[in-house]
Amino acid sequence: MMDRPSAMESQDIRRFLPHSGAMVLLDRLLEAGTEDLLAEVTIRPDSLFCDGQGVPAWVGVEYMAQAIAAYAGYAAQLRGEAVKIGFLLGTRRYEAGCPGFAVGSVLQVHVQRLLQADNGIGSFECRIHAAGQQLASATITVFQPADAAVFLEGSTE
Q: pLDDT per residue over 54-110, tens digit each?
């Protein structure tokens, strides 16, 4: 599954994400490789977007996007670079086999890089599993500019 440069223990995913506070939706980085990453999240009553019974399945897109961000952050740290922000450009074929993720569920979010262009655009095949069953899948397109501040100001030079 993983083409890992080395084995790693489960780690707090926050060190690989540009997010902070309650906006970090994932809990742990389980495995990371040169082309993919496996993250985990446990659905709790206090999870962001939880209605008391669980988290709606549409939040799976954000779980996938954050796993992609963690992949980018992990790769940046391997290169000795800082974690940078990126942008979710689009989602294709998001399919959820359930209406939501129940409280107590332990989800594994796997992202596999399909392509990475020199201009910062990337595409990832993503899946969410729990208890050995696939719950959701999608292809996610992202963009990580060389300089996010310049990009946000409207210039991409």
A: 999 999 999 999 999 999 999 999 999 999 999 999 999 999 999 999 999 999 999
Residue 48: inside a domain, yes or no? yes
Which tokens hold the place of 87?
């942008």
Check: CB of residue 50 under 8 Å from CB of residue 129: no
Whole domain around residue 61: which residue ranges? 11-152
Q: Which tokens sit at 11? A: 């780690």
Q: Indicate whether 5 belongs to any domain.
A: no
Burial 20-49 (b: 16+ CB within 10 A, else e): eeeebbbbbbbbbbebbbbbbbebeeebee
Closest to 93 in 3D by CA, of 59, 125, 48, 71: 125
Q: Residue 90 sits in a domain of what CATH number?
A: 3.10.129.10
The reported pTM is: 0.90
Cβ atoms of 142 and 61 within 8 Å: the answer is no
